[in-house]
């Protein structure tokens, strides 16, 4: 691979990786959905007598200790997802093997993209 191709690949990877560690709460489009999920999980944890949920920002190679999936965020069918084909933040709520509630935040491409060009 020549130097220009290597540099282009490295820059592309750096650009995509910067999204992977982004904080979805500050996202201008999906932030409200992310904040609502976190608030809902805080209430759930209180109702179960558990500690505050820990928000974990996914990084490549992360090994999650998932005993039970409690739910995921989804913009599918909402006004947020209509026509949006870009990267979006998402969260998976789960309990680990010790019963602690965790919120794993990651980025994804919507599977209901209506803009196909």
Automatic annotation (TrEMBL):
Q: Mind listing the UniProt keywords for this protein, alphabetically?
A: Signal
- Which residues, if any, are the signal sequence? 1-22
**Which organism is this protein's natural source?**
Pseudomonas graminis
Q: Which is a Pfam family this sequence falls into? A: DUF2790
- Name of the protein: DUF2790 domain-containing protein
Q: Which domain of life is it from?
A: Bacteria
Q: What Gene3D superfamilies does the annotation carry? A: Protein of unknown function DUF2790
